[in-house]
């Protein structure tokens, strides 16, 4: 269907000759009247970010335990981050670290196959018929409905859907079908922020800024805004231009071919900055989409399980070759530290994203955008290929009733740790300490987001310990 600029809502877009740019929520009118952050119609946002392959879990007697264990030391409000997670310290009062949670139906699943279940909690076995169910994000997207231009953003580093039990997306619709994920920051940027005619599309394709043609309309709009909103608009336009630059820097990562048999697994001319810029650009797309209220729901699968795909090369960001191999090499000298350094890189980028939301005031309301956003960051593996005791961080949501600054540890003293020694893998060991059902956390998240429910994936019960 043809796109007509004259049909655009002028409260939501800047317009130029053949291009339009989505505007952020602003407190003054016109162009946009934002909901009161304390009111029932305030934007409530959900982002779920997944990383594969588990985390460092050295034995307690191992010298690496003190510095490189992913989970903090201590419990409750009296806990200490390690070198692996100390990037979370500035956000300490805005997040909760969870230990001892997993999906009951996934606890005996090999770690290469558990990403499919991370947001669904469905019963998926190693063999036989494959049936999944609706994911947490899509259930909330149904609740949000058509309040935003896009019901949700579904993103992953590898893109597409993958195959059953080897997901490259963590989002599934009500029929349990995988929703294809977008991997190109450029396509996301154009989809979210630029509506254009054919000529504008051509200019954008050759990397001309989307803003250059829109500054006259921005100047006219600025005269009708409050002083506070003028600052917000200027900051937003700067953010969009910076996002454009970052998208271009990340383009080489997207265009790089996957490893071919018999060839080096990584292009030697691919800068170590490329994967870091790529992850940062993807998270920036979520930030800007939330800021413009283009969507209130997003997922990003940083990497697929089993070490396949372009995402395995993200370890280049910190000087290593393949990310999944780091989990196999923890038995080697310095192995725990190396895996910890890689996990620290992922933690750092998540913390940067959360901080962006925290530093952005909620339009025409109290607190920050982080206070009205719930961020779930984690994996469906902990120790080597172990689908139990998920490493999880829940951040934000202060205006939604969440209480933070704690490490809630339900894993018990017999939590499986240590490097894989080549014998039976940890996932096949007998379960001696039942985790808390992660569905209880999901129910609590949904209820605080405004969904009237007492169950998820057929399981009932919530987790009020997360609330103030």
Automatic annotation (TrEMBL):
What protein does this entry describe?
A: DUF1552 domain-containing protein
Domain of life from the UniProt record: Bacteria
Pfam families the record matches: HXXSHH
Keyword Kinase on this protein?
no
| Annotated signal sequence range | 1-34
The keyword Membrane appears for this protein: no
Keyword entries, A-Z: Signal
The record's InterPro entries line, in alphabetical order, gives:
DUF1552 (IPR011447), TAT_signal (IPR006311)
Q: Where is this region: Disordered?
A: 247-273
